[in-house]
Design goal:
Keywords: DNA-binding, Transcription, Transcription regulation. The chain is mainly alpha-helical and 130 residues long. It is built from five helices and two strands; from the N terminus they run H-H-H-E-E-H-H. The protein has a two-stranded antiparallel ribbon with strand order 1-2. The longest helix has 20 residues.
Length: 130
């Protein structure tokens, strides 16, 4: 089961962070078709947020065809976002962990690492388009 967390410094709304976390879990194969999401009540209590925020996230996921509510039972995954490249994740994750260790040894903090990664990622994406 997925365990949600919120980053108040991200500038991203709480409901959107929940949506992104579910989508990420679906893409990485951490959630499978038929898996149950935590109840709205449990998520709201754990994160100390309004239950309507969780409902909004779950409704967005439902609208996208990723989850479906079962009244009185809960919300369940109806499809995943995994693709045929899932097998490549292991080696890539290992390479990324090595890179993160190297960045930390170079003295970069989490915020600097994220900034470096995102700017490099965006630049590479723009090169792919051009």
């Amino acid at each position: 089961m997925i365990e949600f967390h919120l980053d108040s410094r991200s500038g991203v709304s709480a409901y959107l962070q929940l949506v992104q976390q579910v989508r990420r879990a679906l893409r990485l194969g951490l959630l499978d078709e038929g898996d149950q999401l935590p109840t709205v009540k449990d998520v709201a209590r754990q994160l100390a947020i309004n239950p309507n925020t969780v409902l909004k996230a779950y409704r967005d996921l439902e609208r996208d065809g990723l989850v479906a509510p079962r009244p009185g039972v809960g919300t369940f995954v109806t499809r995943t976002l995994t693709d045929n490249t899932l097998a490549a994740h292991g080696p890539l994750r290992t390479d990324l962990q090595r890179w993160l260790s190297k960045a930390r040894r170079a003295g970069l903090d989490d915020e600097s690492i994220e900034a470096l990664f995102m700017t490099t990622f965006r630049a590479a994406s723009e090169e792919d388009i051009a």
